[in-house]
């Protein structure tokens, strides 16, 4: 799965630690999501979408498996 978390975070001038704190996860989790090493759980994906005020499918898009 591909995602736009890094770009959205950058637009807001947030560090990975800032975003992690807002989502109540570790900075390592944010790094893993941004680098595609980890796909977030559905509840976390909804939380990310709410935080950015966007639909999940705008932030997370299917990639080549």
TrEMBL record:
Residues 5-59 form the HTH cro/C1-type domain. The keyword Ubl conjugation does not apply. It comes from Dyella lipolytica. This is Helix-turn-helix transcriptional regulator. It comes from the Bacteria. InterPro entries: Cro/C1-type_HTH, Lambda_DNA-bd_dom_sf. It holds the Pfam family HTH_3. Keywords: DNA-binding.
């Amino acid at each position: 799965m591909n995602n736009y978390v890094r770009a959205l975070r950058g637009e807001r001038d947030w560090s990975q630690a800032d975003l992690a704190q807002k989502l109540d996860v570790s900075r390592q989790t944010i790094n893993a999501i941004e680098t595609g090493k980890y796909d977030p759980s559905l509840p976390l994906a909804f939380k990310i979408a709410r935080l950015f005020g966007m639909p999940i499918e705008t932030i997370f898009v299917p990639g080549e498996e």
